[in-house]
Design goal:
Radius of gyration: 19 Å
Structural class: mainly beta
Number of domains: 1
Number of strands: 28
Length: 362
């Protein structure tokens, strides 16, 4: 039974680490780690004890680096030349590491970067190899860039099939491999690209997907937050169904699945692509316990004056039996719930602009 909780908070000016017990009322924070570097991605890899921590940090002087710690942040190590670098002849330079996730196989870690590329590590994040099949995809020259840049922000390795990985990029859409990365196919049927002209809003690719998630016990079901639209797939991304009815807005960035229930998901709606703060300026998390068929508002303890956004990786859940939820905002505050979203309290405040939060019970 897990009795410790670790929270990683990546910001525009470094990484903070919060520790607590199973109750998750009192927190101790250390930081900044990776001081004055943009931390767009981080990972708590619980396949070892203690967990290995990974942080995708970008220095304006030295470029991006995947840093790692095997002692809960007491010391950090880096790979010479940054761990992720394009091979010679690729005519590209890594700008940011947007995603770090564990793979299906032991010691495998995946990364997603800007410009849009996916990478695979077989040494738990010390070195990475480019997924060449996706980089050479004929759609790549036509992928656009979202407001935050062109990045593979979602990488979802299949929980039991190491040959299958689902990824998403803004603005290119969702892609999937079933042969270990040799080939990749778009998986965007049913997702609306509202920014395109009428009659052209359901293209093969080019959607501005913001985030995708799924539960390992039901890998064929995925949930997707789009630039306008919340969707569910029940056939492993072959097709998508709109599930945004009942939300105050279907524009947002994060979507989080409950770690113990594949039918329960959480989103943080924003007003629109133009007004990137929650409807009415009220911080609210919305929960569905029936796979998006209906939604309920969760706001006990959350502020009613909140004019900032929560980014695509700014919300997460831990793995405790009574699940904890967390979100970090662009005002430098992180809020947490130790009772599955029923009540909330501020965990830490006055940090720089929060880009990513990751939590784990161990």
């Amino acid at each position: 039974m897990a009795d410790r909780t670790l929270l990683m908070v990546g910001t525009r000016k470094g990484l903070w680490l919060g520790t607590s017990d199973e109750e998750r009322r009192d927190w101790e924070f250390t930081g900044p780690h990776c001081d004055m570097e943009e931390v767009y991605s981080c990972l708590v890899d619980t396949r070892s004890d203690p967990p290995r921590l990974l942080a995708g940090a970008s220095s304006s002087w030295l470029g991006p680096q995947v840093r790692r710690s095997d002692d809960l942040g007491a010391t950090w190590h880096e790979t010479p030349n940054g761990a992720i670098r394009f091979p010679e002849g690729a005519d590209a330079t890594v700008e940011r590491v947007w995603q770090l996730v564990t793979g299906t196989e032991a010691d495998v870690v995946y990364a997603g970067t800007e410009p849009g590329a996916v990478w695979r590590s077989t040494d738990r994040g010390e070195t990475f190899t480019l997924e060449q099949g996706l980089w050479d995809h004929p759609h790549r020259p036509h992928w656009g860039a979202g407001f935050g840049g062109q990045a593979f922000h979602t990488v979802l390795p299949h929980p039991t099939d190491p040959q299958s990985v689902t990824v998403a990029i803004s603005t290119g859409g969702c892609y999937q491999t079933s042969d270990g990365g040799a080939s990749w196919a778009p998986r965007n049927q049913g997702i609306r690209a509202e920014f395109l002209p009428e009659g052209q809003q359901f293209p093969e690719f080019g959607q501005c997907v913001h985030k995708i998630t799924r539960h390992p016990s039901r890998p064929e079901r995925l949930y997707l937050q789009n630039h306008g639209g919340v969707y569910r797939s029940d056939d492993h991304a072959a097709s998508w169904t709109y599930i945004g009815d009942g939300l105050p807005s279907d524009f947002g960035f994060p979507v989080v699945v409950h770690p113990h229930d594949p039918d329960t998901i959480y989103v943080f709606p924003n007003g629109s692509g133009d007004g990137r703060y929650p409807p009415g300026g009220k911080a609210r998390v919305w929960r569905s316990r029936d796979a998006g068929e209906s939604w309920e508002e969760l706001g006990t303890g959350l502020p009613d004056s909140f004019y900032v956004a929560v980014m695509r990786d700014g919300m997460c859940a831990d793995g405790h039996d009574r699940t904890g939820l967390y979100f970090g905002a662009r005002n430098g505050a992180v809020w947490g719930s130790a009772d599955e979203g029923e009540t909330w309290r501020q965990v830490v405040a006055d940090l720089p602009d929060v880009l990513v939060v990751r939590a784990a019970a161990f």
